[in-house]
Structure formats: C-alpha cells, structure tokens
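[step 3/7] inverse_fold.run input=structure_tokens len=361
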C-alpha cells in the first residue's frame, strides 16, 4: 500500500504525546470513578481520543502504572515485542477502571512499512475475535508516521527521571488544611478511594520544600483564617511548588472531590470537552425576583451531567439533578432550582472533565 493511502497531505501524519486526565469523583449516586493521568496520542495536532466521539477511556500509557508495566506498554508500541492481540492488534485505549477486554477497548493494527510506522483498522473490541465491519471506526485512520519521529516521541517516556526530555507525571497528592477532623477524614478517604493521595496537616508552613512540591493542590477548610492561608501559600511559593489552592466550599464531600479534581486537571485547554461553567440571571423567577440558570460551554459533542449541591438549614446535603444529556458544541443554559435555601454549587461532568461553579441567586 502506498504512502498516500495511509497519511494525510503529503502521505504522513504527525505523531506526538500530550498529558491528559480522566477526572475521578464521588458521583451523585454514591459510586466512585477512578482518577487517571495518562499520555494521549496526538495525531496531526489533535488528540486521538477526541476523534472517538464521547469515549470514557485512557491510553495504556498511564502515569499511575508501575515503572515496569509502563515501560512494557511503551515497548509494545515501539514494536519491540509481538502484538498482544490476534491479527497484529494493540490496545490504543482501554477501560479506566480495569485492563480487560470485557469492558471494551479501542484497538488497531500497528505495523512497520519500511522505515515508517502505520496505525490502521481501528475498531471497538470486546472479545479476542472482533468484527471489523460491525465494530470498526471507519472514519479513523489509517495513519502513516515517520519512524524517526514516532520512536523519538515514545522514547522520551523511557528516559530516566531527570534526563533531558523526560516528561514527569503531574502531582497526584492533595494537602488538606482544616479544623473539622471528621470532614477532613471523610474527604481524604474519598480521594484515596479514587486514586488520589491525600494528607491532613496544619504544619504546612514549616514543611520541607521537596515535600511541598509533591502536592498538586491544597484544600482549605472554611475555619482556617486568612493569616494561616497566607502562610501556607507563601511556603508553597518559596518551595517553587505549582499547587492550586481550593477554598470557600461547604463541607460536602462529592463537591469538594469534584473541585479538587478540577484543580488537579492539567489537560491543555484545547483537549477539554468542557470549556466553561458559570451561573447567570434569566429574567424574573417565581414571585417576581430574578431566576437563575447555569451556563455550560461545551467544546465538542458530549454527554454532560449537571448536579447541584447545597446544605440546608440543618446542615444536611441536598442534591439537585439538573441535567444529564448529550449536548452539541456551544453554549447551553439550564434553569437552576428556586426551592430551598442555602448556597448552591453546581458540578458539571463530561468525559474526562469536571468543573465546579457557585450558583448566585
């Protein structure tokens, strides 16, 4: 098969890697969704995962795998060992929660063609023997990559830590600073359950700089005064730590987990399905006062779930299911509930993305 039959333009597609995140969380129904950081494949400047509709999956190049397993996956893609599936097939994306085919995986034939590498015949595979006609991604690929570029990009992942060009996984630890021990313990347990490290401390201002650099986010409880918050921020700044600070939220565990996931997300803006979340007034509501709505900006067709959380006067958590539907690219508006008192915060979720915004009434 000729080069022009495989690639785009002059016959070649460009190949690269970019950090991506599959946001975890404690969902409104109480189920857990694992947090996964991974390297996505970038073909002709666009992450390949974004070409595969609304697919909740991660590449085999996940940052939380052990070094030997991670290295084995890289060497597979470098074709240094035989294909793991029949027909010369390799897993390109799989289930974020497990590694089996039963949940389904995107696979493709990867092969050498002279000095080049070709990815072709993409399909959704749930068994050892797939049906290409029924399960194929007929609009995806084939892609021809220059072998030198392909091997150089994947070879970066095999470099030892500290060597030039070796990418580092983003910090996946969170420091919790607060006074309400019971809430902090529940929050730490929820974060650990979805794969995020969490520690509770009131001594961050005096901590070792190397230790502070291992945190990707710091969450302050509402009872922590501004002086202590400022001291913690100064300690992180002096350590050169790139942590995001989270505060101002009520003690609702699913809401706090969602906001911390947003803080940990280092996915480039152009790769995100959700681009913005805010609330706004929309004319007059019940009784003549202004009604409110949540406004969500969607970058590509995605299933979007919108959930509101608030504490009532007895400090019980109230959950409002606002929307759960497939949305086209663009700006969408959903009315907010008018019943009930207490501050309301909205969580928006799409595949790999989560955003949190306060609802102003």
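[step 3/7] decode complete -> sequence:
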């Amino acid at each position: 098969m000729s080069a022009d039959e495989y690639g785009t333009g002059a016959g070649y597609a460009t190949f690269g890697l970019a950090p991506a995140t599959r946001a975890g969380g404690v969902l409104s129904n109480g189920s857990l969704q694992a947090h996964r950081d991974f390297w996505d494949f970038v073909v002709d400047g666009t992450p390949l995962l974004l070409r595969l509709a609304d697919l909740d999956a991660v590449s085999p190049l996940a940052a939380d795998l052990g070094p030997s397993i991670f290295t084995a996956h890289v060497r597979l893609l470098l074709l240094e060992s035989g294909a793991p599936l029949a027909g010369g097939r390799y897993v390109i994306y799989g289930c974020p929660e497990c590694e089996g085919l039963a949940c389904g995986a995107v696979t493709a034939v990867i092969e050498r063609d002279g000095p080049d590498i070709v990815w072709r015949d993409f399909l959704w595979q749930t068994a050892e023997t797939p049906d290409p006609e029924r399960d194929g991604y007929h609009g995806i690929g084939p892609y021809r990559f220059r072998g030198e570029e392909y091997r150089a990009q994947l070879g970066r992942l095999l470099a030892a830590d500290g060597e030039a060009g070796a990418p580092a996984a983003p910090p996946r630890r969170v420091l919790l600073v607060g006074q309400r021990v019971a809430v902090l313990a529940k929050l730490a347990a929820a974060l650990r359950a979805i794969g995020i490290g969490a520690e509770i401390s009131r001594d961050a201002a005096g901590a070792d700089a190397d230790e502070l650099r291992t945190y990707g986010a710091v969450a302050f409880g509402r009872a922590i005064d501004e002086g202590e918050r400022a001291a913690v921020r100064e300690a992180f700044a002096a350590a050169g730590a790139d942590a995001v600070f989270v505060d101002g939220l009520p003690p609702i565990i699913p809401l706090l987990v969602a906001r911390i996931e947003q803080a940990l997300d280092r996915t480039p803006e152009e790769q995100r399905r959700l681009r913005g979340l805010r609330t706004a007034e929309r004319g007059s509501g019940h009784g003549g006062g202004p009604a409110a709505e949540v406004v969500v900006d969607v970058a590509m067709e995605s299933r979007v779930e919108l959930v509101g959380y608030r504490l009532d006067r007895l400090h019980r958590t109230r959950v409002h299911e606002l929307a759960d539907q497939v949305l086209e690219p663009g700006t969408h508006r959903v009315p907010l509930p008018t019943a009930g008192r207490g501050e309301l915060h909205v969580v928006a979720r799409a595949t790999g993305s989560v955003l949190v915004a306060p609802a102003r009434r």
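[step 4/7] annotate
The mean pLDDT is 86.
The longest strand covers residues 274-284.
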